[in-house]
Amino acid sequence: MKNYLLIIQYDGSAYHGWQKQKNTANTIQEVLEHTIGNLLGEKIELHGSGRTDSGVHALGQAANFKCKAFLPSDFLQNLNEGLPPDIKVTSLSEVPIEFHSRFSAVAKQYEYYICCEDRPSVFRRKYVYHIEKKPDMEAMRQAARLFTGMHDFRSFSSEKNPEKGCSRTIYEITVTEERGEIVLSFYGNGFLYNMVRILSGVLLKVGTGELKLEEIEAALHTGEREFAKGILPACGLVLKQVFYENGNWK
C-alpha cells in the first residue's frame, strides 16, 4: 500500500461542503473520491485535514488516500482533467504510510475577506463579505490580540457539544487591507466548528463599535454562548494552508 497527499484548491460556492453526505453527492470529497477511484480502478477513501462548510473555499486543503495501484507520472494531469473547473489538485506527493492529513497536522491558516467598497468587484463578489462602512481596523487589531494564545473558545464556536474540549491555541491574528478588502488571517493549532467565522464577526463588531473589548474578555472567562450566534457568511472564508512538521508536506 502507498499513501499519497493531495493539496487542493476549490471554489466552494456550488458544493455542500467538503465532507461526504448521505443525501447528496455534491461535496468536494465525493467528487474527488469518485474521480480518483475511476482513474485507479479501485475504491479509495480520502481523508481531509478538516471539514469546510457549504460555500467555504480553499487554497490549500490537504487530504490523503491509500491505494494499491501504481501512480503513473501523468496521474496528476489526468486527475485535474477529470475534475470540474472549480476543483484543482495543485500537488501530489507520496508520504509515510502512517501519515494522516488531519491527525498529523500541526497548524492551519484561514483567511476571511471583507469588502468595504461601495460595491464589490464583479470578480470578487462570491469571495467576500460586503459591508458599507469601513470599520476601525486598529480597534480590530486590539481585539485580535485578546484571542492570541491558548483559550477555551466555547463562547466563539458552534460546537454541538461545548462540554467537549474547546481549548485551542491561536498563534497569530492579523488585520490588514489589500485592494479595498480587509483580510483577517488566523493562524493556530486548530479551530472549532464555525470558530473563524464567529471570531471574524466579533472583530468586525468591535471595529464598528457594536462590541467593547471588555465584553470579549468576559466571554473568554465565563464561556457564555451569546457570541455563537454571530456567524458571518461562508463566502468570505478560505482555508489557506495546512502545516505539517515535515516542510515538504506544506
Helix share bin: 10-25%
- Spans of 5+ residues with little confidence (pLDDT < 50)? none
Radius of gyration: 19 Å
Percentage beta strand: 25-35%
Molecular shape? globular
Which sheet architecture does the biggest sheet show? 10 strands, mixed
Number of helical segments with 4 or more residues: 5
Q: What class do helices, strands and sheet pairing give?
A: alpha+beta
The average pLDDT value, as a whole number, equals 92
Amino-to-carboxy terminus distance: 22 Å
The oligomeric status of these chains comes to single chain
Q: Could you list some keywords that capture this structure?
A:
globular, ten-stranded mixed sheet, 5 helices, 22% helix, alpha+beta
How would you characterize this protein structure?
- This protein has 250 residues and is of the alpha+beta class.
- The protein is built from five helices and ten strands; from the N terminus they run E-H-E-E-H-E-E-E-H-E-E-E-H-H-E.
- Strands 1, 2, 3, 4, 5, 6, 7, 8, 9 and 10 form a ten-stranded mixed sheet that branches.
- It is globular and about 55 Å long.
- The two termini are 22 Å apart.
